[in-house]
């Protein structure tokens, strides 16, 4: 009797981002456990997602700056259905948008960790933590402050 082949093992690393010239700084900083956001050097507006021109003053003088890593929970959902092989091993998890304290409406999509789902509250204080997923990927996640 022939044996059925085993199904392939689930990946242990999420899909990797493909940084470009405009986003490379972000991923390089996360590998060093720092959170950097692009900022207009003319008017001071933070720009996320990164873009080459400031939406407020139209300056092209933009550069990455380290931010505090403090945020508040803006919105979230509990993901219970996996949308890929890696995520099948992760459900359920919190997929969220946080607002960084440096500027109103400066938001980042991330995961919330280290908190029971029923304790999540809009406006709760959070702080960044970094998950080293592989030598090529570190993800910024947030936990209660």
Describe the structure concisely for a colleague.
The protein has 145 residues and is mostly beta strands. The protein contains two helices and eight strands, in the order αββββαββββ.
Describe this structure in words.
The chain has 2 domains: 21-67, no CATH class; 69-145, OB fold (Dihydrolipoamide Acetyltransferase, E2P). A hairpin with a 6-residue loop joins strand 5 (93-100) and strand 6. It is mainly beta and 145 residues long. The mean pLDDT is 94. The longest helix has 8 residues, at 24-31. The protein has a 5-stranded antiparallel beta sheet, with helices on one face. Strands 2-1-3 form a 3-stranded antiparallel beta sheet. Helix content is 8%, strand content 37%. The protein has helices at residues 24-31, 85-88, and strands at 36-40, 46-47, 62-66, 70-79, 93-100, 107-112, 125-134, 137-144.
Highlighted features:
OB fold (Dihydrolipoamide Acetyltransferase, E2P), three-stranded antiparallel β-sheet, 8% helix
Rg result: 18 Å
CATH fold category name of the largest domain:
OB fold (Dihydrolipoamide Acetyltransferase, E2P)
- Encode the helix/strand succession as letters: HEEEEHEEEE
Structural class: mainly beta
Largest sheet: 5 strands, antiparallel
* C-alpha termini separation: 58 Å
What's the overall geometry?
globular
Tell me the domain tally.
2
Mean pLDDT: 94
Into which percentage range does the β-strand content fall? 35-45%
Oligomer: single chain
Can you lay out the helices and strands and say which pair or pack?
Layout: H1 24-31, E1 36-40, E2 46-47, E3 62-66, E4 70-79, H2 85-88, E5 93-100, E6 107-112, E7 125-134, E8 137-144
Antiparallel strand pairs: 1-2, 1-3, 4-5, 4-7, 5-6, 7-8
């Amino acid at each position: 009797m022939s044996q059925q082949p085993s199904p392939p093992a689930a990946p242990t690393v999420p899909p990797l981002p493909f940084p470009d010239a405009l986003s490379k700084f972000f991923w390089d900083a996360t590998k060093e456990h720092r959170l950097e956001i692009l900022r207009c050097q003319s008017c001071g507006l933070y720009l996320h997602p990164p873009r080459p021109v400031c939406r407020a003053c139209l300056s092209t003088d933009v550069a990455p700056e380290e931010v505090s890593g403090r945020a508040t929970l803006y919105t979230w959902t509990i993901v219970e259905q996996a949308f890929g092989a890696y995520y099948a091993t992760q459900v359920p998890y919190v997929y969220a948008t946080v607002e960084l304290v440096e500027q109103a409406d400066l938001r980042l999509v991330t995961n919330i960790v280290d908190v029971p789902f029923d304790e999540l509250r809009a406006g709760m204080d959070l702080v960044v933590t970094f998950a080293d997923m592989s030598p090529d990927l570190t993800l910024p996640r947030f936990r209660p402050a």
